[in-house]
Amino acid sequence: PAGSVAFLGLYLMFGYGASLICNLIGFTYPAYVSIKAIESSNKEDDTTWLTYWVVYGVFSIAEFFSDIFLYWFPFYYAGKCLFLVWCMAPVSWNGSQVLYQNIIRPCFLRHHQTVDNVLGNLSTKALDAASSVTREGNAGPPVP
C-alpha cells in the first residue's frame, strides 16, 4: 500500500493525465458512498455527502476560473488531490465540514433570500414566456 501511495503521489506530480486521476479520486469514491448513503435509512450519512458535494461544486467553479493560473504551479494536481481527500476524510474536521461551516454556510445565510427572489422572478418570467409561446402556437396559422 505505501508503495502504491508513493507511486500515485509521484504520478500526480509528474505523470500524464494527472488531472483525470485526480478527478477520478475526487469523484469515484464519493459517488459510490453517496449512493450507499441514499440507499441507507441513516440521515447523517446523507448530510455528510451532500456537504461534500456542495464543497466539491464550489471548488469546481472556483477552479474553473483559476485553473489557467493554478495549472502552472508545480504539484498542483497532487495538492488538489490531497485537498479532495481531506474533504472526504472520515473525521469531524474534514475539509467539507470546515469549509461549509466557516465559509459556505455563512455566505449562504447572508444571501439566500436575495438569490431566492431572483430565482423566483426568473421562474415567473420563464413560465410567462412558455405560456405565451404555447398560446401563440395553439392559435393556429393567421387567417388571410
What do you see in this structure?
- This protein has 5 helices and no strands.
- The chain starts with a helix and ends in a 6-residue tail after the last helix.
- It has helices at residues 2-14, 18-39, 43-70, 76-88, 95-138.
- It folds into 2 domains: 1-72, no CATH class; 92-138.
- With 144 residues, it is mainly α.
- The model has no long low-confidence stretch (mean pLDDT 83).
- Its main location: membrane.
- The chain crosses the membrane at residues 6-29, 50-71.
- Belongs to the DP1 family.
The value of Rg in angstroms is 22 Å
Mean pLDDT: 83
Shape: elongated
Distance between the termini: 80 Å
Question: What profile does the largest beta sheet have?
Answer: none
Helical amount: over 70%
Unreliable stretches (pLDDT < 50, length at least 5) are none
Number of domains: 2
Order of helices and strands: HHHHH
Determine the strand fraction and express it as a percent band. under 5%
* Oligomeric state as shown: single chain
Structural class estimated from helices and strands: mainly alpha
Number of helices: 5
Membrane topology: Multi-pass membrane protein
Main location: membrane
Organism: Stercorarius parasiticus
Protein name: Receptor expression-enhancing protein
